[in-house]
Amino acid sequence: AQSVAQPEDQVNVAEGNPLTVKCTYSVSGNPYLFWYVQYPNRGLQFLLKYITGDNLVKGSYGFEAEFNKSQTSFHLKKPSALVSDSALYFCAVRDEGRGYSTLTFGKGTMLLVSP
Amino acid sequence: DGGITQSPKYLFRKEGQNVTLSCEQNLNHDAMYWYRQDPGQGLRLIYYSQIVNDFQKGDIAEGYSVSREKKESFPLTVTSAQKNPTAFYLCASTQLAGAPQETQYFGPGTRLLVL
Q1: Chain A residues inside the 8 Å CB shell of B101
Q2: Of the given ranges (A6-10, A89-93, A97-101, B53-57), which has the lowest mean pLDDT?
Q3: With DSSP H G I counted as helix, E B as strand and the rest as coil, what are the percentages for chain A, rounded to 5?
Q4: Residues of B in contact with A100 (CB under 8 A)
Q5: Cα–Cα distance for residue pair A78/A38, rounded to 1 Å
Q6: How far apart are CA B49 and CA B66, in angstroms?
Q7: Torsion, Cα of A44, A75, A33, B65 (10° steps)
Q8: For position A76, what pLDDT does the model report?
Q9: How far is CA A98 from CA A27, A34, A69, B32, B34, in A?
């Protein structure tokens, strides 16, 4: 079975500092990994995904994520946080071995960026 | 203007009442999905459809029903059998069904409240 864990319910960072939101996964085949962001009372917005190739994936709004197969991790990063980055972030995984294209989501990490 | 629309934005349900949430997409996507979001629990899959006139149960289908009579529409009915329907409901779609690399795109959501 595929699963994803976001070990931190909340991450606090000061504006201008680098941020990391952690995600680990478990799959039986090759993983397809996704990051989404959600602002209050809104739908999820796609940030980036890892399919294959370079372990460092660049996405929207200056975010990037690093795929680490040995540690089964896909942490979201940004070099310099903005107050407007404050939101709920979801990591999701799809297992190539499952045979259909459903996503399994983590429980989400609230990112709070202070001025 | 392409995208996924969900209506209404807020919906109130009385005890014993069935209610239907609308989801429409003009992206010509093959697959559509319904998720339920509860605080601290992430997104849980209710139903999904990869093709017109076919759909599959997700992880929490009990108390819900769907139809897929048209490619662009995937309405969700919350029946009286769903004893705890208060949640934020999200509809999503992907261009291709069964392709693990496909990105899911989300609508703005419907918040269902019980009177």
Answers
A1: 32, 49, 51
A2: A97-101
A3: 10, 50, 40
A4: 50, 97-98
A5: 17
A6: 9
A7: -40
A8: 98
A9: 9, 16, 19, 18, 19
* Chain B residues 86-105 within an 8 A CB cutoff of chain A: 88, 90, 92, 94, 96-105
Mean of pLDDT values over B21-25: 98
Count helices and strands (H / E) in chain A: 0, 12
Pair of tokens at residue B15: 């005890």
Helices (H), A35-91: none
Is residue A56 scored above 80 in pLDDT? yes
Q: Do A51 and B101 touch (CB under 8 A)?
A: yes
CA distance A47 to chain B (A): 10
Average pLDDT, chain B: 93
Stretch A23-33: mean pLDDT, rounded?
A: 91
**Which of B21, B101, B112 to mutate to probe the A interface, most A CBs <10 Å?**
B101
Share of chain B above pLDDT 90, in %: 77
Instruction: Return the pLDDT at B1.
Output: 52
Count CB atoms within 10 A of the CB of residue B53: 9
